[in-house]
Amino acid sequence: SQQGEEDPQALSIQEGENATMNCSYKTSINNLQWYRQNSGRGLVHLILIRSNEREKHSGRLRVTLDTSKKSSSLLITASRAADTASYFCATGANSKLTFGKGITLSVRP
Amino acid sequence: DAGVIQSPRHEVTEMGQEVTLRCKPISGHDYLFWYRQTMMRGLELLIYFNNNVPIDDSGMPEDRFSAKMPNASFSTLKIQPSEPRDSAVYFCASSSYRDRGNTGELFFGEGSRLTVL
Hints:
The structure holds two protein chains of two kinds.
Chain A: E1 5-7, E2 10-14, E3 19-24, E4 31-37, E5 43-50, E6 55-58, E7 61-66, E8 71-76, E9 85-93, E10 96-99, E11 103-108
Parallel strand pairs in A: 2-11
Antiparallel strand pairs in A: 1-3, 3-8, 4-5, 4-9, 6-7, 7-8, 9-10, 9-11
Chain B: E1 5-7, E2 10-13, E3 19-24, E4 31-38, E5 42-50, E6 53-56, E7 65-71, E8 74-79, E9 88-95, E10 98-99, E11 102-103, E12 107-108, E13 112-116
Parallel strand pairs in B: 2-13
Antiparallel strand pairs in B: 1-3, 3-8, 4-5, 4-9, 5-6, 7-8, 9-12, 9-13, 10-11
């Protein structure tokens, strides 16, 4: 069963703009991770945030986690055409990592 | 490091045939995962191993699917007999990190795209 649900399903923005993607989940988690997948390729890990953390940064990425609302957001600042990809949130619980169905991000040059 | 290596990258077969997908994890990683990705169901965890031992195979869809890890550098996922509904991209991922008892960062291979006619 799917744990994380990403929102929106698709996002199209202009290069230079910020992209915000959301993830909601249903049960308690120990950590939440975001991954990127380019077309026809494997998934690449972006960032991990633990359940006792509220915000984390990595380069142009900012992730927040609100365990009371069971939600997370991924912000990509100053987007580039190379950021065009699918983005997945994955929740870690019961020793498993469960992925949502992903968000398709298109960044127009 | 070469990363996680999967073969074949593409496989087209006919219903009823046996399919074997192969995976070489990153050296030193002690966790190995098999996922299946389809448009309808997204990414599903099929099975995972720790130190070559299967820990959880509750995601394996049915008895037609089996997975083995005979040593730390090799794993196979076998489907026998294959059916059209098995068509998907199968990913292998490995990890050396557990985040306080939970799965840490996964390193994915490029996937094996299976088409069953």
